Amino acid sequence: MSDTIYQAILRLDGACVGVKTANDKLIGLDFLAMDMQQDCTNRLAEQVCQQLLRYSADPCFRFDVPMLLRGTPFQLRVWAELQCILPGQLLTYAALAGRVGSVARAVGQACGANPIPIIVPCHRVVSQSGLGGFNHEEDGEMLNIKQWLIGHEGRAVFSG
Questions:
Q1: pLDDT in tens, 73-130
Q2: Domain Methylated-DNA-[protein]-cysteine S-methyltransferase DNA binding: where (predicted)?
Q3: Catalytic positions, please?
Q4: Are the C-beta atoms of 110 and 146 separated by less than 8 Å?
Q5: CATH of the domain spanning 73-152, picked from 3.30.420.10, 3.40.50.1010, 1.10.10.10, 1.10.287.130
Q6: Domain map of the chain by residue range?
Q7: Which residues fall within 8 angstroms of residue 89, CB to CB, at 6 or more apart?
């Protein structure tokens, strides 16, 4: 990710997030190493960072930044459904698949391809047997971030 240009890098309690914007829209949030930091380079990045900090203080905070989600029609359907899951609620991949008329594996792939995690809350989707994956990873730092986000919102889920 060293060649990626971010308009801000923000450290939260459980993650460091790189903010990407284009044409006055948020187009991406990337999880980065915790030792990174960068001041905001535009007004939208500043707004995104302020809202992420508000979410960090209040897990029920509702984001309202302008976003541009780019994906397949199926991914866009899944991402729209993700935004209907309230903080503290968890939904299984299978249950979300039922909402979009698909199967759990396809929903998991769409969740993993989500370009704006946290704001489009793919972390609220879990497997029937535990945490599941996050950001196309099934263990390691990404699952630690997912666990932090779920715990921040008042729920504990343990993989197993």
A1: 999 999 999 999 999 899 999 999 999 999 999 999 999 999 999 999 999 999 888 7
A2: 73-154
A3: 122
A4: no
A5: 1.10.10.10
A6: 8-57, 73-152
A7: 124
Rg, the chain, Cα only:
15
Within the chain, residue ranges assigned H as helices are 43-57, 73-82, 93-100, 104-112, 141-152
Which of 134, 126, 135 lies closest to 155 in space, CA to CA?
Answer: 126
Q: What is the pLDDT of residues 43-54, one digit of tens each?
A: 999 999 999 999
91: left (phi over 0), alpha (psi -120 to 50) or beta: beta
Strands 125-126 and 91-92, by their bridges, are parallel
Give pLDDT tens digits for 135-146. Answer: 767 778 888 899
- State pTM to two decimals: 0.90
Distance CA(71)–CA(3), nearest Å, equals: 22
DSSP string, 53-90: HHHHH-TTPPP---B-----HHHHHHHHHHTTSPTT--
